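Translate sequence into structure tokens.
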Amino acid sequence: MNDDKMSSNSVEAEYMDIANRNAWPIIYQKIGRECQTYPYTCMEAKKPQNKPLNRYRDVNPYDHSRIILKRCERDYINANLVKMEKANRKYILTQGPLAFTVSHFWLMVWEQNSRAILMLNKIIEKNEIKCHWYWPHGVGEKHKMVLNDVKLTVVQISEEDCSYYSTRVFKIYDLESSESREVVQFHYTTWPDFGVPTSPLAFLEFLNKVRSSGALGPDVGPAIVHCSAGIGRSGTFCLVDSCLVIIEKEGRDSVNIQQILLEMRKDRMGLIQTPDQLRFSYQAIIEGAKRLDPGWKEDQKMEESIYSAVAEENEEEAPPPPPPRGESLSRAPVRPLPAIPTSTSLGNLNYARQESSSSDECPPTPPARESSSATSSQASSADDEDDEPTPTHIDSGDTTEARDTLRRRRTRELADRVSAMKRRARDAEKWHAIKRSLYKPLTITFGFLIAGIFIYSYVKH
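Result follows.
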């Protein structure tokens, strides 16, 4: 890798060099090859009694850094404690809870003295359930969640919608000790699976909100960070936060992004799943470092609408099957990298990927799907959630009222889409339940009918 000492300008120069050479897949694969030499094991995750507790069969916690539950029948949960000593940061990275691991999740929050949950995914993405709804469905005692197996109760105190993310405050009651504690959930709702946020600006504002709550400080337990698998979006968040802390504490000559990522991967496998996410991490770190400069002016901020947005896809198409998560740990994706968004701070770092690329930069393109729209969906990665409404570009002369109107319309459209997706998922589940309920009686009836025919034929002859 590069030298450990690297100035902010050097990081920017490195970024521009990689972008000019279209080398993000190469750099990403190089990091993956170095991680393959790590000697760490995942024996607990592969035990027969623990395998059902893993959301993905190829994303397992390392034994040396896994979180061990104390007050539970099983001490296993798919989660790792990721330490970045140079930044004085600790995070617990975990998968989105399954229906039968919700109580384990809340027990981990309680036992680790965590004061924040950073949820970077939506419950349903591309008509696929990526995380079980693990918190109360309403505010107040009447909606409280009682977890008898771990002797905890969770009550939602408040909820606030902040456009592209939401915050919720919960109170956890320990039924054994009668103690209670408040925990804040920061829910980023517009970050697609295997993708990146709409802009570095939006992400940095979310990060500042989390930091200002004190949830990442050394005087409280490590924050719980999760997406679906707990490695892609979660790893991106932790990498950017740690690098910016190091720059803030030790100056611009103190950060090597690739080396820090390798250090973090020693505690949890596969952090950052795509070259896109690695490139976005560079963007956010460069932008954040410039904002730490005393000469940076607040009026340099630009509207979120100037950044490239996730393309909207036809939701009526059946979602392609999700790829094995393990492929993202060692292979570059087949899709070309999209154009890089610009900003005042990033300046001229907008390098579009060339149409042609050498064969050693990308693996062969997979066979085309039956429909053109499905092919487009697969090219943008199988689990990529591209169902956000595409924002209309807002000229600098537009009024604040017009921007607020557009933002409200987008929020309503998004809410309608999510409602429709949940409705389709419920209808599909009801249909499967009906089929399962009819299967057994029809099978028995058909068996009696066949037996009657044989008996009748035997008696007759």
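Note: The longest helix spans residues 400-460.
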